[in-house]
Amino acid sequence: RTGAEKDEIKSFISKSFSYDLDRTLAEIKPGYTFYVDCMRSVPEAIIAFLEGNDFEDVIRKAISLGGDSDTIACMAGGIAESYYGLPDGYREEVISRLDIPLRRIVFEFEDYLTNLYND
Predict the structure, then answer these.
(1) pLDDT at position 22, please?
(2) Residue 119 reports pLDDT greater than 70
(3) How many angstroms separate the CA atoms of 115 and 113, rounded?
(4) Phi-psi bin for 37: left (phi > 0), alpha (psi -120 to 50), beta?
(5) How far apart are CA 72 and CA 104, in angstroms?
(6) 5-63 confidence digits (pLDDT tens)
(7) Among 6, 32, 52, 62, which residue has the fewest nearby CB atoms (within 10 Å)?
């Protein structure tokens, strides 16, 4: 959300969290299975983001790993949304499927982020 490039993001995360982000999805995929711990899912989500070319590509790459793919895709998608934004129509489609209490939560969170990054 601050305009950093992917190489800056990769370097910051690697140094801050000691994640091995030098692997590729092609290297990870053959032996990847379902893991519930963050050390074998968070880095994979970040790598999917780093290799992706746009929002949808990131999601597809994350899902292609298999394992706990819904969780990995959610993490990768959150990062991709911050970097690329959402494709036209995605936000409206999702919002239309939420009930009113959930919509309020989304709107409050968006307001929080707007205030956080614009102050």
Answers:
(1) 97
(2) no
(3) 5
(4) beta
(5) 26
(6) 999 999 999 999 999 999 999 999 998 988 778 888 999 999 999 999 999 999 999 99
(7) 6
Output the DSSP codes for the chain.
Answer: -----HHHHHHHHHHHH-------HHHHGGG-----SGGGTHHHHHHHHHH-SSHHHHHHHHHHT-SSHHHHHHHHHHHHHHHH-PPTTHHHHHHHHS-HHHHHHHHHHHHHHHHHHH-
Provide the whole-model pTM: 0.83
Which one-letter amino acid corresponds to residue 64?
Answer: S
Residue whose token pair is 């950093």:
4
Asked if 86 and 94 touch (Cβ cutoff 8 Å), the reply is: no
**Contact indicator for 19, 49 with CB cutoff of 8 Å:** no
65: pLDDT confidence band, cut at 50, 70 and 90?
Answer: very high
